[in-house]
Structures are given as C-alpha cells and as structure tokens.
Amino acid sequence: MRKLGFLIYISILMVSCSSSHNKNAKKDVTDYAKTITVNELKDMLYTYASDEFEGRNTGEPGQKKAVEFIKKHYQDNKIPSPIAEGDYYQEIPEAYFNGKAKASENVLAYIKGSEKPDEVIVISAHLDHIGISSNGEINNGADDDGSGTVAILEIAEAFKTAEKDGNGPKRSVLFLHVTGEEIGLFGSRYYTDVDPVFPLENTVANLNLDMIGRVDEKHENGDNYLYLIGSDRLSKELHEVSEAANKKYVNLDLDYSYNDINDPNRFYYRSDHYNFAKNNVPVIFYFNGTHDDYHRPSDTPDKINYEFLETRTKLIFYTAWELANRDERVKVDLKST
Predict the structure, then answer these.
(1) Given 6, 82, 162, 237, which is the most exposed site by the fewest CB atoms within 10 A?
(2) Main-chain dihedrals φ then ψ at residue 289, nearest 5 degrees
C-alpha cells in the first residue's frame, strides 16, 4: 500500500509539473493571431459602417463620431498615443483642405518597440468615406474603408496582447488612421509632408489597408485572395518578407495584377500608401479590387466576407510582425517613381 501511495504521489507531481510547464510555455505569433476573429471584426464594422456615422464625410459630424470610436478602442485596450498621453488626434486645420472640407484629424496609436523603438512600421487605413448622397442616402463605406479600419484595430489588439506577455515587437508599430483620403489623400499627406510623428528616415515600411473585405468579379468562384500593390517597387526584401509570411502562415492567393507599372487603373497612386512611397518608404497596398457597390449606399456591412477578412487581417499582422522583429530593417534598393 505504501508503494502504491508513493507511485500515486509521483504521478500527481509529474502531472502538476507538466501543467505548470504548459502554462508558462512561451507563446508565439500564431497565438496572437488567434485574437483576430470574425466576431470582433463583424461587431466593430456593423457599428463603424452604420447610419449613425453618416457616411464619415471629412470634417462632418459622422466623421467626428468615427474618430471617437477609434480613440475609445485604443483607450479601452490601453494602447497609447505617440503624440501625448491621452491625445490621439493629429489635428489638421481647415485651411489645409483647400476648401474641400472642414478641419479634421488623423488618429494615431502605437506599440513602442522593445529594442529599436525609433524604427517604426506604419499600418494605415483611411477613416473617412463620402458621406450622404444628394438624395439623402447614406454611403456607409463598409468595405471602403471600414474593412481596413477594423482590421487595424484587431491587429493593434494582437500586438498589445503580445506586449502584455513580454513578447512585444522589437520595433515600434504605429497604427495610423488617416482622414481625407476620399478627397485627395489629405490625411496621409499631412502626416508625411507636414508632421511625421516618426521621422520618415526611421520609417521601415508602410502597410496600407484600403478595401479588404469583399470579393471582386475575377475571384467570385475561387479561394481567398488579396491584391498586393507596390511590395517590390522600392524594396525587394519587403516583397520577399511578404511572400514568406503568406506561405508560412495563411497561403492566400496573392494577386499582383494591379502592381503592373502600366496598370491603367493606377491604383498604386490612389491610396494613402503613395504618400509614403513618394518619400522612398517601402509600401504594400492591400486591396480586394472593385465591385458594384464601390462608392454607393449599397456598400454595407452585410456584404462583407468576414471569414476572408479575418484571414487577410491575419496575413497583414504576420507581415507586420516579421518586419517589426527581424534583425535588420528591410533595405530600400529602388527609387520612387
């Protein structure tokens, strides 16, 4: 009986030690990516692209509600601003918009790098849309660019969770929500040309999310995909990091059709990443392509493919993670055109 009791004691001890070891096992990037979920993306987007936000026209009351929504998310998750404590708004005066809009603001939050805090990865999306049509219909802009906005909020949460575990990024990661995109890329231009909170020479890369929640006609009968634009225009290494992250973690169909220099759509010049690219900051523009609801009241949250959006958001998180944690920043080997 004594021997049996001793064996039971040893067994309990081994199980206890094993359990303790598993609890203390260091998490990796895939654990943090799991915090990016369909349910959270959907819940946020149904609010952000609701009629309450009145189409988020630059400088108008609906856009002010949008920036408050974004700010509150960062405050609730204890993700600080790089501007000043509690100050998440980069104010842009009315005069800057040349009569196209009233005064507006970008929203900035960040995770400070643990080893190279002065080097920064910028993840951007535009917070504005086109407002209310002349017939009174609200343009909710669920895909354009509600999808990119809520994706950044989820990516920020994932990085914050890693930081809480003592596994924060080596480089700083800036979550940049820009205004005035729909009327001429004003918010991103203000950040790059007037008030770059992080100097552009210290900006490693910009990952720009603009319409990543839908499926275009070309891919209607296929697997999950995403158009990538600009990834190899300034840095071959950036393109290689992006490809490797996709292959290792999610294996989306990456479509480079719009990356052709002779692309008649000229999408490379038409979203906020371009204001970084023109300053020789390597960029990737993530895009699902156009659809019949583009810039129409019918761009509503019920038409988003949330499973696709979750995986696409994870890809961008994984890519940002690799850029933020690799030993050397990606090299710029080409010049902006």
Answers:
(1) 6
(2) 90, 170
